[in-house]
Amino acid sequence: CFVCGESGATITCLATGCGRRFHLPCAVEGGCITQYLPEYRAFCWEHRPEQAVEAAPDTTTTCLICLEHMQDTKSFHTLVCPVCRNAWFHRGCIQGHAACSGTASFQCPLCRNKDQFQEEMLRMGIASPPEWDQEDLEALSARHDRCDAGQCRCPGGREQAEDQGPWQLLLCSSCAAEGTHRRCSGVDNSRDSWECPSC
Questions:
Q1: Longest C-alpha distance within the chain, in Å?
Q2: What share of the chain is helix, strand, coil (3-state, %, to 5)?
Q3: Which of 26, 32, 106, 191 could form a disulfide with 101 if both were Cys (CB 3.0 to 4.6 A apart)?
């Protein structure tokens, strides 16, 4: 790896005649860009793409995400929206924003342009994760709804739950990933919470 000097570097700069190799975790430190386009491509610091913006941020410009001051020069660590050209970001800040937004909602926080903004950010090595489908979102937001006691005593089975009484389903007060009927784990009516064995 031309950045850290260790072996095992498998990413090679795409530029013809350039033999520089690097590890993916070393890319940012070495000023390298990895593009997550339909065809994966990587470039070293010397051959990486540059933004076509002539202007540089002035001394009062702040990153729209972290609100910290920007460097007053254009660099690897500073990116600008290609549409409005007024929204400046630190590379790490816009990558974090992309990771949290997902492809469907990743856009310039200032002008709200999506298509040109995403295209430019991808070209500059900023990747957003693919969208979650509706089934995945429903699974994430689903409330645990079964008794996980070693031996469930409920005549209606593990999935039966009542609002109160011995077959009221309590979720673990720490993780909410396991549940029990009151009677199956010996939780009397005077207690409002229960904690699973793992927690």
A1: 75
A2: 20, 15, 65
A3: 106
Q: Is 113 in contact with 107 (CB distance < 8 Å)? A: yes
pLDDT tens-place string over residues 131-174: 655 666 566 667 889 999 999 999 999 999 898 899 999 999 88
Q: What is the CATH number of the domain that holds 92?
A: 3.30.40
In 3D space, the residue among 25, 70, 27, 63 whose CA is nearest the CA of residue 48 turns out to be: 27
| Residue that is written with structure tokens 């645990």 in the block | 144
Q: Give the model's pLDDT for residue 166.
A: 92
CA 171 and chain centroid, separation: 28
Report helix, strand or coil for 11.
Answer: strand
Contact (Cβ atoms closer than 8 angstroms) between residue 191 and residue 185? no
Q: What is the domain range of residue 33?
A: 1-48
pTM higher than 0.70: no
Residue 187 sits at φ, ψ, to 5 deg, of -95, 115
| Residue 27 one-letter amino acid | A
